Amino acid sequence: DRNLNVPLNNALHDDDNQNMEDTLASSQEETISDPETNSVSSSSLSKLDKTLLINAYTIKHGLTVDAVEDLLTLLQLLCENDIDIPRSNYLLKKTLNTDKSMCKRQFYCPVCKGLLGDQSSRAILSTCQGCNQDFTFVSLQTAASFFITFDVRFMIETLLKAKEVASNLHQNLIKRNGCRADSNIHDICDGGFYKLLGISRLDFTCSINTDGVSPYRSSKLSFWPVLISINELDYKLRRQHTILVALWSGNEKPNFDTFFQPLVTMFNELSEVGIQWSYNDENVSSKCYFPLFIADSVARCTVQGLNQFNGKYGCPWCLIKGQSHWMDDNQLRRKWIYKYEECILRTQDQFLQNLETLSTKLSLSDFKEESYKGVKSASQLLLLNRFDIVDGFVYDVMHSSYLGVVKMLTSFWFDSSYHDKVFYLGRRVQLVDKKLTNCRVPFNYDRKIRSIVHRKFWKATEWRTWAFIATTVLNGILPEVYRTHLLKMSNCLMILSDEKITPEDIHFCETNLSLFVQQAEALYGVETCTFNLHILRHAPSCVSKWGPLWGYSAFQFENFNGVLSNLFHGSRKITTQIMTKTLQLVTLFTTSDEVFESELAAEFFESMMQSKQFAKECRKVMGDATFVGPFQKYSFSQNDQRILKDFGIFASIGCNFRKCIIKGKMYCRADQITGKRNNSIVATVDNKIWLIQKLVYINFAGGTGVAVVQRIHGTPNIGNSYLTTVTRIDDAWSIVKLTSISQQRFITIYDDELKYLIRIPNTVELE
């Protein structure tokens, strides 16, 4: 009988499970918790512990000053005799003792935007070298004619004080220096250009990103953060520990020559002098380089010193000229297009030659252009050590593919302006929506895709999901010639976003993406020949040079922009607010190391600092697995016990949990599947696919875990290596060890019952 959730107050007679009997005996039927392990007394917390927890709470939830004051008053009322709770917001923040010298205001001329300096000399006046005007620093500060920079050395050294970060970096540096047996690409360190950097064994690199963020819909105000992340860290830590190093705020875009001038100076100092950090109490000296720049097409051209992407020679990686195209017969609308053609690739030497030619031609009276071969100005990044002005800029899959090409094609299919085209699907929206409703994504996936009617509100993550599932959802709806064409791009994007990419994969994507770009004009018309469509051809080359697309996608940095929006309130002195909160976060991060004696308090603090969900009830086992939430008693059948004995586990009962976190990924039982989420499909290391029915903790040999499962059988798709068509699910149940579950995750599509499994190309982005 498979109805195995027997009453929990039954006596347990198995000697091997006596400890579990003690845990279960006092419980009622469903929820069981251990008050000794799931609570902490305020008396066991020091004054520093309490102030750290309160500060972390206020920053995580973006509390205003008034809200913080109310919170402190409430805590004083609830804990009347606790003198450790600060009496005001001022006293609370004073306990952090932030070092404001690690952040500087860099003043610039409000007329020509030239850099004036940081007033380090405490001078009252400053003269602009560009327009020869005098300004007082007081007036510049009043006019908000400044941007802020953080001490990059301090920010990186502070991050490396965290044992987890230092240990991970050191391990990955040792791994990088070893000889990898295969030529496959797994991360940034496997890229061809990365290997040509010629850095020493303990040196590491960082990626740079900048993009505009508009905090208000009713204002032109925007701020432009400069973010960096250490490439040699695991992606999870890379994403958690993105570092803010500069911030520009104003109604206009930054003058990037001014903006990056002090940053390039600090970056070069780190690549020449290096930084000091420690691992296992041993001092380590490393130089830090900045060879990658991640930006969307709008920011990239300005930073690189090229024409806009919608102008002549606007491609950052090749010398395709493009052409102007009228969008209507009346010649009222036109756009710059890039028809398919073979083109010469740019190089840094060629870029510098074009820059010299431009300088010469600008002195000629008959030269009416502002650029030559697209080169418009000398970027500050030309002064950055080990940075290639052409190949240092990487392909941005989020803006160029998901928010670019995929979004454009979808508009062709569903916008009513194309109602007379053979590919128009506007009359079949209800059928498409029905299929989308039957689509479920894993818990760790950012969001469930919404109705196709609401596509103008879709976020980039929804467009990414759509790119992965569109060929399956539109099977039998979109004419096959168009669906096959779409499959070329969809399959290549998934391959280039995988965790293992072979040289054969690169060649396959180069061929198929070239065909996709070439065929787009014939299928949809010349208006598809956009800049985003053209640069899709450069994606395989970028992966060959710098690793998988996820390694440097803008998703990581866009996520941090959400963090920034939580660091200010109102519309006044945004830059100063973000500066103050950032320094407070840095202080929290460094002060909290080895402070908390209570493990539960430390985990709660970490959950707030990293915006994780705090699990009050959990049970950790060997093999990097954690059972979460309430549980019930589970009795194994005789057949189950025989399987367990084959695993070396001797038990007849266990605790059946609803959820389990395995190697950082959440899994659930089949009865926890919702209309939007499905976390019950797993694959084991032998590439078998299973449906989880029970997640069982066994109190044996220090604790272990197994999953009671049903085998899923399916047929792989020839045209799409990530798609499996489900043929049947076994009625018989089996058992797999949690340690045998691989990292593979699936998007599931139902048609009354489970019909399709789409393997997500990588799981590192599912955090």
UniProtKB/TrEMBL annotation:
Residue spans of biased composition, Polar residues class: 20-38
One Pfam family here: Transposase_21
Classification via InterPro entries: Transposase_21 (IPR004242)
Disordered: annotated span: 1-43
PANTHER family, per database record: F5/8 TYPE C DOMAIN-CONTAINING PROTEIN-RELATED, F5_8 TYPE C DOMAIN-CONTAINING PROTEIN
Name used for this protein in its record: Transposase domain-containing protein
